[in-house]
């Protein structure tokens, strides 16, 4: 626990200044985290990032992560009509490579690489896009994820009796799940009281509940992946916390959700 707390404080101290400043430094940091996360998910499958398929997957990931205005410049530079065409081209190259190596890498592995690139890439892409809307929105995203995670942990540890999903994550409880939602709502309302950023308290409560639930499902998805590949953590870059995916699994689900709610005028 002590190591976990110390790591969290140091990581936050390094991460928060980038969040506050935003712009290119924040984009580069998020891109670097996405690359590490992609490396972690490939490693679970036994695929090297430094192989031909890993490299093509990495190019796909980078194109998915970078801001829309950056990817548009890449697309214009190579003469394509959209970045989707570039991603399609990379997928074709991966499938051609399967033929060239005579199934030494399989269709299933290509599918895993592409799904991994979308899973990691789009989540981190929307983290960058959310920051571009304004600091308050990305702060809210982080607040919901961190308070949900902390609330679920401490409430579950103190009051948890009923297992939530033991086949996937044996330590998670129903009480912790609910506690995480309640704590997230309390902190979101506190943020709204200090710095009003949402249209109203009622809509904020519903959005926070929804985001907290989706975030915890993202955590369970990562747990399911790790259980399938029989690994404890996705990586070991953060002592006491595991890897990048272990810490950002919820965020990868929450930020796309809030992005779509933003454009749907729910704020």
TrEMBL record:
Compartments, record wording: Cell membrane
GO biological process: CDP-diacylglycerol biosynthetic process
The keyword Transit peptide belongs to this UniProt entry's keyword annotation: no
Reactions listed under catalytic activity: a 1,2-diacyl-sn-glycero-3-phosphate + CTP + H(+) = a CDP-1,2-diacyl-sn-glycerol + diphosphate
Principal subcellular localisation of the protein: membrane
Family the entry assigns: Belongs to the CDS family.
Name the record gives this protein: Phosphatidate cytidylyltransferase
Origin organism lineage: Bacteria, Bacillati, Bacillota, Bacilli, Bacillales
């Amino acid at each position: 626990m002590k190591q976990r707390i110390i790591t969290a404080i140091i990581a936050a101290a390094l991460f928060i200044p980038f969040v506050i400043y935003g712009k290119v430094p924040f984009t580069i940091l998020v891109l670097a985290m996405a690359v590490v996360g992609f490396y972690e998910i490939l490693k679970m499958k036994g695929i090297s990032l430094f192989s031909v398929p890993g490299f093509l997957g990495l190019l796909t990931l980078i194109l998915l992560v970078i801001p829309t205005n950056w990817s548009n410049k890449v697309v214009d530079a190579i003469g394509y009509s959209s970045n989707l065409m570039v991603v399609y081209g990379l997928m074709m190259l991966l499938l051609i490579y399967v033929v060239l190596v005579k199934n030494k890498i399989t269709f299933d592995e290509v599918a895993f690489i592409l799904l991994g690139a979308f899973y990691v890439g789009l989540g981190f892409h929307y983290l960058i896009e959310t920051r571009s809307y304004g600091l308050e929105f990305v702060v809210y995203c982080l607040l919901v994820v961190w308070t949900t995670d902390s609330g679920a942990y401490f409430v579950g540890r103190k009051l948890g009796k009923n297992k939530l999903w033991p086949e996937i994550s044996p330590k998670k409880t129903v009480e912790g799940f609910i506690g995480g939602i309640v704590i997230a709502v309390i902190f979101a309302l506190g943020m709204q009281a200090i710095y009003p950023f949402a249209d109203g308290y009622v809509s904020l409560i519903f959005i926070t509940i929804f985001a907290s639930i989706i975030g915890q499902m993202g955590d369970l998805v990562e747990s399911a992946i790790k259980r399938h590949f029989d690994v404890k953590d996705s990586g070991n870059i953060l002592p006491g916390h595991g890897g990048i995916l272990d810490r950002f699994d919820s965020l990868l689900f929450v930020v796309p959700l809030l992005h779509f709610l933003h454009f749907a005028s729910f704020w």
